[in-house]
Design goal:
Radius of gyration: 15 Å
Number of helices: 3
Number of strands: 6
Order of helices and strands: HEHEHEEEE
Shape: globular
Structural class: alpha+beta
């Protein structure tokens, strides 16, 4: 969030983390209903970077952006490589009472959401577009990053 504030000041336009809803729409790349950004086929090292893939177990760490193909919106590494922070606080009951279209997320909470899985991911379910992972807001790890949204 500090980086987003810095960019906003530098660019003189709003730069922020995406909401969970924005992140998921972008991750799907225009293809609704599929498990992963590339479709329903199981992940492998040609589609994304994650530890459960036996062919990359010896390749610890992230890979350069663009190593795997982009999704339908031209976004790279939406699944695997690094978990991505989103702006939303976590609430287990929020989506039962929120707006159906483009929910902004809860105003407050104790935990934050990260999305997309990472190179350390061993459970391929965590690479799905719909997977939500909950962490404390001060979590820092070598497997986490972020993607920003710039206002037009």
């Amino acid at each position: 969030m500090a980086y987003c504030r810095w960019c906003s000041d530098l660019l003189q336009r709003e730069v922020r983390l995406p909401t969970e809803a924005e992140w998921e729409k972008a991750a799907r790349g225009g293809v609704d209903g599929c498990r992963y950004p590339w479709g329903d086929e199981p992940p492998d090292s040609l589609l994304c970077h994650f530890l459960a893939d036996q062919s990359v177990k010896s390749q610890r760490g992230t890979r350069p952006t663009g190593t795997c193909p982009p999704n339908g919106y031209g976004l790279y590494d939406v699944a695997g490589n690094v978990w991505e922070w989103v702006a939303d606080w976590y609430s287990p009951s929020y989506y039962g009472a929120s707006e159906v279209r483009d929910p902004p997320g809860p105003d407050r909470g104790a935990m934050r959401i990260i999305r997309g899985g990472a190179w350390v991911t061993e459970d391929v379910r965590m690479l799905r577009c719909a997977w939500r992972h909950v962490v404390p807001p001060d979590t820092y790890a070598y497997s986490m990053g972020f993607r920003i949204v710039c206002a037009a």
